[in-house]
């Protein structure tokens, strides 16, 4: 099983600042990496797939990068609605899919 | 509009059986894999398994193989997750979610999610 490790577990950021979230895979997943946002009491929402392609309707302040084992989600200027938990998910090793443990982005 | 609508919250006792549902609409239900994801209280997301409603091809995470059964009834565009004997440790939110699909075939990230079904198992 491919293990996905996200860091940091919690990120404290002020509104308007940049947030950088990391996701590391225990072995290469190529670019088969997705990012999701989950707000309290809500289902996850797809943000990024293919490591860097924004899903439909996702604002341009969200960007993804990386390939192989190292990936980054960047939120260029945090808005109030962006404070949430973010998960990465690899889908290179289908049907064995795995999620990272999540990064909580909180208000500083 | 693509929608996945899940059945309502359940409160059960240990040892009881349960089947929860996920009804798809707004797309060709038989053409997209549907997965189930567990989220225990205050924890992260865990992939449980997936089904292709077109032919009921089903795959399970090793962690959930033998613990749950995933099925689908394509005549009513509904996928199911069931337990034969619940445990307290099955208490969690359960989400169904659809895999994407493009011109090159299935893409195994989840593009649409249900609203979740909260299952509480307590004596």
Report on this model:
The complex is a heterodimer of chains A (108) and B (123). The model of chain A has no long low-confidence stretch (mean pLDDT 96). The radius of gyration of chain A is 13 Å and the shape is globular. Chain A is mainly β and 108 residues long. In chain A, the strands form two sheets. In chain A, strands 2, 4, 5, 6, 9, 10 and 11 form a seven-stranded mixed beta sheet that branches. With 123 residues, chain B is mainly beta. Chain B has no helices and eleven strands. In chain B, the strands form two sheets. In chain B, strands 2, 4, 5, 6, 9, 10 and 11 form a seven-stranded mixed beta sheet that branches. Chain B has a four-stranded antiparallel beta sheet with strand order 1-3-8-7, with no helix packed on it. The mean pLDDT of chain B is 96. The chains are: A mainly beta (108), B mainly beta (123). At the A-B interface, strand 4, strand 5 and strand 10 of A face strand 5, strand 9 and strand 10 of B.
Computed structural class of chain A: mainly beta
* Proportion of beta-strand residues of chain A: over 45%
Got a strand count of chain B? Answer: 11
Q: Could you say which overall geometry of chain A the principal axes of the C-alpha atoms support?
A: globular
Oligomer: heterodimer
Low-confidence stretches of chain A: none
* Helical percentage of chain A: under 10%
Helix content of chain B: under 10%
Whole-number mean pLDDT of chain B: 96
Q: Beta-strand percentage of chain B?
A: over 45%
- How many helices of chain A does DSSP assign? 0
Give the helices and strands of chain B as they follow along the chain: EEEEEEEEEEE
* Spatial gap, N to C terminus of chain B: 40 Å
Shape of chain B: globular
Tell me the major beta sheet of chain B: 7 strands, mixed
- Residue stretches of chain B low in confidence (pLDDT < 50, at least 5 long) are none
Number of strands of chain A: 11
Query: Would you tell me the structural class of the helices and strands of chain B?
Result: mainly beta
């Amino acid at each position: 099983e491919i293990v996905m490790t996200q860091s940091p577990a919690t990120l404290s950021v002020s509104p308007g600042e940049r947030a950088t979230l990391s996701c590391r895979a225990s072995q290469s997943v190529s670019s088969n990496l997705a990012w999701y946002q989950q707000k309290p009491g809500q289902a996850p929402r797809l943000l990024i797939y293919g490591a860097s392609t924004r899903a439909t309707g996702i604002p341009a302040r969200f960007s993804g990068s990386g390939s192989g084992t190292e990936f980054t989600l960047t939120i260029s200027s945090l808005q109030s609605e962006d404070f949430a938990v973010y998960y990465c998910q690899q889908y290179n090793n289908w049907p064995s899919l795995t999620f990272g443990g999540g990064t909580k982005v909180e208000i500083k | 509009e693509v929608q996945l609508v899940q059945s309502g919250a359940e409160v059960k006792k240990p040892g009881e059986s349960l089947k929860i549902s996920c009804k798809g609409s707004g797309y060709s239900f038989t053409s997209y894999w549907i997965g189930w994801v567990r989220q225990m209280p205050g924890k992260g997301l865990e992939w449980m398994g997936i089904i292709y409603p077109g032919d009921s091809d089903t795959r399970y995470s090793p962690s959930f193989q033998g613990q749950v059964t995933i099925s689908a009834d394509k005549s009513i565009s509904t996928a199911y997750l069931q337990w034969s004997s619940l445990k307290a440790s099955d208490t969690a939110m359960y989400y169904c979610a659809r895999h994407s699909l493009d011109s090159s075939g299935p893409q195994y990230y989840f593009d649409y999610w249900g609203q979740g079904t909260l299952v509480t198992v307590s004596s």
